[in-house]
Amino acid sequence: LNSFTPEQPGTRIAVFDVPDEGIKGIKGITAVSDIALVNIEGAGMIGVPGTAERVFATLKTAGLSVTLISQASSEHSICIAVPREAADKAKAVISEAFSDEIAEGQIQKVDITDNQSIVAVVGDGMAGTPGVAARFFSNLGKARINVRAIAQGSSERNISAVIDSDNVTKALRAVHSGFYLSAKTISIGVIGTGVVGRTLLEQLRGQRERLRNRFNIDLRVRAIAKSDRMLFSDVQIDLSGWQDALNSSEEALDLEFFEMHVCAEHLPHSVIIDCTAEQEIADRYSGWLERGIHIITPNKKAFSGSQAGYEVLKASATAGHTHYLYETTVGAALPIIKTIRDLIDTGDRVHSVKGILSGTLAYLFNSYDGSKPFSEIVAAAKASGFTEPDPRDDLSGMDVARKLIIIARELGQEIQIGDFPVQNLVPDELKKLEVEEFMENLSRYDDQMLELYEKTAKNKQS
């Protein structure tokens, strides 16, 4: 039956069992708003026969309908959900009925929690199917939605949860996608539109539909930011023309607004992808993780900073039930970090790690033989995207140092910058310049680099 669109499939109503074709037996997910919770609580209720009967008899006499009932086995409290307009009356009549118990302290309080909604999953096939409740509440938990009350009948055909009304849209989306009744929607914000950021956005544009069809994931890039401005959309940005749209945007960069927009209340999952190498962005990771925003980044700054800061980062992820993925901080696309984790988790002991920790330095030194100025080779490498946004991170040895720290911490070591020597190839006069100025002035030190090269080559021969 489909009253509004008769030509389309509708709901089958029958007196006999119909094979359930839904995932895990779920046929529908719904919400009831404008609900209030009335909670009766007190140690004097424990083991006292007739308490629940008195509550419901009182409500019946007052002509009040109860939408949901929840009581734990401790019998310490009874929680009922009623329409919002009936909450004050329900509290009043219950308080009057139990006035003696309240006066004697056997019942501590009768209170109201306003602005609530009920989210329910229903389906005939739910009965006897293990894991339905687990998935239901897991999806709510992953979306950082608190459940205030729970109800399920012995028929197992309905599970209801009471949540804050502000979260009802997010809850419906999270549960709906969690049971694969719709695509799992992920709100994405990308910071940084250099070589890495541009390539990532192009990949998302090209692969979005394939990922949706194959994995049932709806990847929505809703915000893009660069150093001085940002672009955002309530639904998703058209990635076929994002560069022109961003360049013409009049929205100045505001990281707090960016965060709020990506972490939208109506979308259950949010991710910020940091494609910069900026410390200012890395310093915000802990707050984002704690708020429930997942982080994906090639930025090494946060994961190679002070040991104390690293511990805060991990604690924030635990508190926010979030993930921070930084595989590309070491080894580019190679699964270095995952391999190390798997070795450690399976009981192996890592004695040493060997490799070329800087593809940039390897490229520069393999290309440099003294026939071309060193500054020209650095400029070509930067233009090709082989270096960090600021090549001094490579030439100073700091990029290698940060990778060493990240690897060492994965191995369980407590280590930070300053605990081991780093040779810096950046002249002192160029250390504090802007990147453009550094590149313009690097040629002044080509002779110095040639002298160092010849000295090293001579020492190697001897």
From TrEMBL:
Residues 121-198 form the ACT domain. One of its GO terms (biological process) is threonine biosynthetic process. Pathway: Amino-acid biosynthesis; L-threonine biosynthesis; L-threonine from L-aspartate: step 3/5; Amino-acid biosynthesis; L-methionine biosynthesis via de novo pathway; L-homoserine from L-aspartate: step 3/3. InterPro entries: ACT-like_dom_sf, ACT_Aspartokinase, ACT_dom, Asp/hSer_DH_NAD-bd, Bifunc_Aspkin/hSer_DH, HDH_cat, HDH_CS, NAD(P)-bd_dom_sf. GO terms for molecular function: ATP binding; homoserine dehydrogenase activity; kinase activity; NADP binding. Keywords: Amino-acid biosynthesis, ATP-binding, Kinase, Lysine biosynthesis, Methionine biosynthesis, NADP, Nucleotide-binding, Oxidoreductase, Threonine biosynthesis, Transferase. Coiled coil: none annotated. Its cofactor is a metal cation. It catalyses: L-homoserine + NADP(+) = L-aspartate 4-semialdehyde + NADPH + H(+). This is ACT domain-containing protein. The lineage of its organism: unclassified sequences, metagenomes, ecological metagenomes.
